[in-house]
Specification:
Layout (H helix, E strand, L loop, with lengths): L15 E2 L11 H17 L5 E6 L5 E9 L5 H12 L8 E2 L4 H4 L10 H9 L17 H12 L6 E7 L6 H21 L7 E5 L18 E7 L16
Parallel strand pairs: 1-7, 3-4, 5-6
Antiparallel strand pairs: 2-3, 5-7
Helix pairs in contact: 1-2, 4-5
Length: 246
């Protein structure tokens, strides 16, 4: 994870993290929900007793590249049949077993971190996006900065840009969560109006659970928006993994 700057309503810079892979619109929670049901039926039909398919990655984002968990008592042939059955479900990409390293061995092209975080860092080193007090309404002074942020992010189109809202610990836990979510959404909508595709943006509120390192939870500087710019997963399905070590 490389720190670039953190957008805060009062002070700071935007953190752009570079790790993992996200798929765009095809990874939406509603689509994945439908795929999950079909995958469960495919697992059952293939004899995958005790096996489940997890359609979320380690960051908690929905993905169409499921990890198969369980089934340790099944033989290798059944495990291979289960993986193949899940891979044939419409909408599913690569399938892998928990503990498998097949992805690391894949000959698929590697996706390098994108460079736009450097441009955003330069913009936000001394400026910040600001909101109305206890509101998700953007202050007019932030409009020009958002124009520049959108321009800096444009070379990264095709990647997923996660917008994460944070607050300090003042107020209720639920209220902070709602406010951070609404502010993240406000930034997302502002970027959409500036030409950044909706299907490449993810807005999520985290409330006060992740204060800035070195700050107390109640410090106002924890009120911030963080961005994570993530390389995209290949649309070409990855190979079905061989059963991993058990």
């Amino acid at each position: 994870m490389s720190r670039i700057s953190r957008l805060v309503p009062f002070s700071g810079a935007v953190l752009v993290a570079l790790s993992g892979y996200f798929l765009a619109e095809r990874s939406g929670p509603q689509l994945v929900s439908g795929i999950e049901q079909k995958a469960a039926a495919a697992i059952k039909a293939a004899g995958g007793r005790g096996v489940s398919a997890e359609f979320s990655n380690r960051f908690g984002w929905a993905t169409r590249h499921p990890m198969l968990v369980g089934g340790e008592d099944l033989n290798e042939q059944i495990r291979a049949d289960v993986a193949r059955a899940v891979a044939q479900v419409p909408g599913v990409g690569g399938v892998y077993w928990q503990g498998s390293s097949a992805r690391a061995r894949s000959d698929a092209p590697q996706y390098e971190p994108l460079h736009c975080q450097e441009d955003v860092e330069g913009l936000l080193r001394t400026r910040s996006i600001r909101f109305e007090e206890a509101s998700s309404a953007l202050l007019p002074a932030s409009e020009i900065l958002l124009d520049e942020v959108a321009t800096a992010l444009r070379p990264c189109l095709g990647a997923i840009i996660a917008i994460l809202g944070h607050t300090d610990s003042s107020g209720t836990k639920l209220g902070n969560l709602d406010l951070s979510r609404e502010r993240a959404r406000a930034v997302r909508e502002a970027l959409i109006t500036r030409g950044i595709p909706r299907d490449g943006l993810r807005a999520r509120g985290l409330g006060s659970q992740n204060p800035v390192e070195g700050l107390t939870p109640e410090d106002p500087a924890n009120r911030r928006i963080e961005f994570s710019v993530i390389s995209t997963e290949p649309l070409k399905p990855t190979p079905i993994d061989t059963p991993g070590a058990r």
